[in-house]
Amino acid sequence: MGSYQSYALEGASAVDLVVALYDGIIRFLFAASDAVERGDQAGRREAVKRALDIIIHLQARLRMDVGGKPAQALSEFYASIFAQILQASQSASQQKFEHAIECVRNVRDAWRQVAKDPEVNPAPLQVAGMGSGHMQPGFESDYGMDQGAGAGSSWNA
Predict the structure, then answer these.
(1) Exposed e or buried b for every residue in 22-46, given b needs 16+ CB within 10 A?
(2) Number of domains in the chain
(3) What is the pTM of this model?
(4) Is 50 inside any structural domain?
(5) Residue 70 belongs to a domain
(6) Nearest 5°: CA angle at 63, between 102 and 8?
């Protein structure tokens, strides 16, 4: 990762990092689709592997004990999108990659909405005094949100 990208993510909240991971999935799915168009099997496989690695990471970090139904819904989404990406790759189908991209974009856009909520996603300056290794207020580690985060918010995973 370039130094600019490293710096940009340094002060990011947990929600901002999740959005960045979704952006990575989308970027790799576009690369896989482009590789299909070029007939580049190795490029397609590498891009698909990278997208699937991110999905596996997101799935593994879910906290079902904290996230409840939203965490379960995300788990099902990750399993579904994983299968869709495998099918797109096996059939070398740009159309199937485009469908997977749209599905990921929809969920990423929901995370972006969460990122705009200052109760759930405080500005970096609000937590600047916290030492490294501490989670931001309202978050449990591994992307599971604290039960008290954002009164009325249904985003607990």
Answers:
(1) bebbbebbebbbebbeeeeeeebee
(2) 1
(3) 0.72
(4) yes
(5) yes
(6) 60
Q: How far apart are CA 103 and CA 112, in angstroms?
A: 14
Encode pLDDT of 112-132 as tens digits: 998 888 777 766 544 444 444
Residue 54, amino acid: I
23 in any annotated domain: yes
Question: Which token pair is 3?
Answer: 């130094």
Structure tokens at 102: 């749209």
Instruction: Identify the residue with better confidence: 131 or 57.
Output: 57
**Start-to-end Cα distance in the chain:** 26
Q: Is 140 inside a domain boundary?
A: no
Domain around 93:
12-121
For the record, the structure tokens of 40 come out as 């580049």
3-state secondary structure of 24: helix
Kindly report the CATH number assigned to the domain that includes residue 109: 1.20.120.340
**Cα gap 33→31, rounded to integer Å:** 5
- The whole-angstrom separation of Cα 97 and Cα 31 is 10
**Contact yes or no for 107/26 (Cβ under 8 A):** no
